[in-house]
Specification:
heterodimer; A: 543 residues; mainly alpha; two-stranded antiparallel sheet; 4 strands; globular; B: 333 residues; alpha+beta; Helix Hairpins; Cytochrome Bc1 Complex, Chain D, domain 2; 9 helices; 40% helix; elongated
Amino acid sequence: MSTTNYLTCSKGWKSWFLTLDHKRIGVMYLTAVLSSFALGGLFALAVRLELFQPGQQFMDPTTYNRMFTLHGAVMVFLFIIPSIPAAFGNFVLPIMLGAQDVAFPRLNLASFYLWMAGAVFFLVSLLGGGIETGWTFYTPYSTTTADSSVVSALMGVFVLGFSSIFTGMNFIVTIHQMRPKGMTWFKMPLFLWAIYGTALIQVLATPVLGITGLLLIVERVAHIGVFDPALGGDPVLFQHFFWFYSHPAVYIMILPAMGIVSELIAAGSRKEIFGYRFIAFSSIAIAILGFLVWGHHMFTSGQSVAASVVFSALTFTVAIPSAIKVFNWLSTMYKGAIVLNTPMCYGLSFISLFGIGGLTGLFLGTLSVDIHLHDTYFIVAHFHYVMMGSTAVAFMGGLHYWWPKMFGKMYNEALARVCCLFVFIGFNLTFLPQFVLGTRGMPRRYFDYPERFQFLHQLSTIGAVMLFITFFVMFSYLLHSLVRGKPAPMNPWGANTNEWKCSSPPPFNNFDVPPPMENPYDHTNLVFDEKLGGYRAKQVINS
Amino acid sequence: MLVQMLTLANAVVAATTGEGFWFPEQASTVAGSVDFVYDLILWICTIAFVGIMLAMLILVVRFRKSKVLVPQPSPTHNDILEISWTVIPSIVLVVLFYVGAVKYIDMRESPADTYDIYVTGRKWSWSFEYPNGYTDAALHVPKDRNVRLMMQSEDVLHSMFIPSFRTKMDVVPGRYTSLWFNATQTGTFDIFCAEYCGQNHSMMRAQVVVHEQAEFDKWLAEASDYIAKLPPEEAGKKVFETSGCKQCHSVDGSKGIGPTFKDLFGSTVTLSDGSKIVAEENFIRESIYEPKAKVVAGYNPVMPTYEGKMNAEQMRVLFAYMKSLSAQGGAAP
């Protein structure tokens, strides 16, 4: 335990800020995205508290509009999109391959600084008064609003896009080039399949967002007339451009989350993952189909009836690979030996919440029903079940799963499980009432509302406060564990992917000798050792 | 057979969830079928979700480590099983797509015999223009009649959302979008703007009032007769706001596409050929019917003619309004 690891091998701020080590870069990303999550959470809390009663509570309509815009923009661009790939992907991907780093370590550090630059642009627009266009920047509102912070926010989006593209390219090359001998595509951990599918979307879709953002800036500054009808442009064109990226972006968010859940369920069930190929292929299927469904955000926008019908049909096809994954995770648990540790609890929580998030998508994909539900709280509830209930919950699962590996410390397991439960309860209390608000006709992005909606809004606000407190407790015990936590064993969960075959925290170069190639989901050779507080290979007993 | 089963399932949903738990009243011809498809999906999703949750619960309890100690061997894949849980949901999804798309096409393609009302959305109000040219801030429609809204926006995106009719359509600047419905209940229902449009987005609400046809005709005749009912200045203000004057002519002295109406009436203006003229009734009448005949210096001849669009009565009250805005008080020299 006293040997040096990646955290202790060098000291001083330069050793962090100029590091090329994928693990340190991963930890820096983790700190950055968690800070963004906290900031976005504060905005969300402000929005929910303002909506506790109809009329004005403690902010005027313009401030409210800024709050929900900043909540959306910070959560989407600074938290969810980079969260799992940039933080956990960076930390875990090379170790899972038994490699010493990603293919391009310098590019990796550059990606991080691009993220920081993007975040600075966001902060500039925040200090400049904040944007109030909605995170979707719909034209012509965004091109005509007096709020000049729109330009700096869009610059932020543009720069963050490059961070995302570089990370994606880095991961694609790493997975192609650096798999060890014997690790064929179908012997890779499923998390890597998910990261690979995500990276494909990052590289192919993000440039479209960059160009769209640039066009919007030029439109605002030089009035060239691309999106503003007063100048001969077309506002619906902006929506096509925007969703051409932003729908695939939903899969940038959910695919890596599904990858984490595959790891959590397999480890927590002590069982080989069921239907490996179907899960792997479904990741790629989601990545491809995700490109073809953007028009389902526009069923009421004025796009043609024929286009809407085609987009509806394509939208339903995405449901299939998602359903396959859920069935395969459940089958993995069959005849396993299920341990309800914190990561597994988050895995099960994900299956429930993603179940609701995915199934409510069927209402919205169905054209005649979507006409009523579009732009109401039903949508708000649906995408929060997918983005927060699924992606953020999987992120928390990954955080608790890899925390001992990243920092070499165990957190308070009992408290962590209680928090997992309260995240589940608080989340459902916040967003289940919003489905009913939506079907009853409550439009989204409303500062004020008719009194008949008040009770459901109050339930939702109470849930949001509960979530806020729970996350505060979670961050507290995680930080506490860094100081007072028990040392983590090499393999606390009994998983067989490579990151559990090096010390916790890993040494600087991960492995002196690459670990032997094994089936990443064969847990039969691992036994629990009371003395270690973790799992170890069986052979050691015999020797 | 399928339809009967769905109707039965729907009836059970209505019985279990209680009438009106999910939706506001059904006040248009499409509302019933939208709710029916919603209930159908709700049933499918409930069955799927309860199934998944039960399976999860049973697996966790049955195969918990404290009970089974070690995992038991079982197949790591099963093609027949996996193909079947790919194909069966696919069939369900095809059905959902079909029922949703068929109704959607109905909802979007308006029938031939519609009663057309022109709608304008702006930050942050709606106005509704009836076939006789009368414009109102509320939408009044006859019951049991196909009504089509031809909608345009003066500024940014808006969206016409009538929850009780289960219908919604974005209002896009630079083009007409349309929406049709057939109201089945008399009464007053909410209209919301559903597309974010800035500061007072949540205040951009209006009402739709459904009348019996005879009542509607009576309402429209009376409402259109505002010139007789209101004081001339107020009636003139209404003409000014609803005829398209205010888009180019300000009332506060600021320069628009055309001259401001503040202090205009009775003043002396210079025309583009250098001559001067007093802005009294005859000049303004000519400027409304033949806008290009005499153009005020510094402005372009871009105003369209209102010949046939504005009658003598409307013009009379408009003069009254313009006089009320002018310091000269309309006293011609």
